User: Which sequence fits this backbone?
């Protein structure tokens, strides 16, 4: 259905929009009642290093550039003995991520980044909590996921 509130928003076209998205998202995360303390107190995140890492991560996902070389599975597995990293937390993270994207952007890449975040949240959640679920195994992509990833063509980075 056509959503008129999205009509005049730009799509994500390059690094500048990724930085805006990541900065806005983590500003909200830091102040979030459910997620804030995991970063601020449990992980004691160094934002000066975390934010550039996340720019590189999303640039790599969307544009296949960006040079991300981290290890998301290990970074989240490390948190499991320290705090609850259950389904509710991931659902809340995703809701905040989706609403941040929708507040700022609209278009093919905006949709793609939300879908990628949801796919990755499922994989990270099930692996780190050892809840094996064949639906979340990257080896078992659904026809819809296969078609979506095959259709997606990264634009040239601006
Ligand atoms: C419950 C949801 C989540 C929580 C509480 C969470 C929390 C964290 C924390 C605390 C870190 C470490 C930051 C530091 O270095 O201090 C981290 C790293 C990271 N997170 Fe998440 N995260 C969540 C979901 C996700 C999802 C769904 C994605 C991907 C779509 C993601 C992507 C990343 C990446 C790429 C890193 C950097 C990994 C590295 O250092 O190599 N996170 N996250």
Assistant:
């Amino acid at each position: 259905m056509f959503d008129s509130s999205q009509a005049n928003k730009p799509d994500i076209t390059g690094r500048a929009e990724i930085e805006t998205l990541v900065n806005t998202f983590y500003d909200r995360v830091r102040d979030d009642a459910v997620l804030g303390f995991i970063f601020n107190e449990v992980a004691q995140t160094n934002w000066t290093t975390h934010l550039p890492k996340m720019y590189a991560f999303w640039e790599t996902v969307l544009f296949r550039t960006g040079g991300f070389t981290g290890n998301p599975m290990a970074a989240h597995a490390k948190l499991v003995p320290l705090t609850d990293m259950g389904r509710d937390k991931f659902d809340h993270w995703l809701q905040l991520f989706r609403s941040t994207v929708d507040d700022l952007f609209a278009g093919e890449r905006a949709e793609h980044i939300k879908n990628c975040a949801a796919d990755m949240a499922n994989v990270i959640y099930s692996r780190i909590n050892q809840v094996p679920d064949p639906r979340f195994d990257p080896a078992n992509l659904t026809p819809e996921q296969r078609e979506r990833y095959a259709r997606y063509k990264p634009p040239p980075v601006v």
Summary: The mean pLDDT is 92. Residues 35, 38-39, 43, 45, 50, 53, 57, 70-72, 75-76, 79, 85, 89-90, 93, 117, 120-121, 124 surround protoporphyrin IX containing FE (CB under 6 Å).
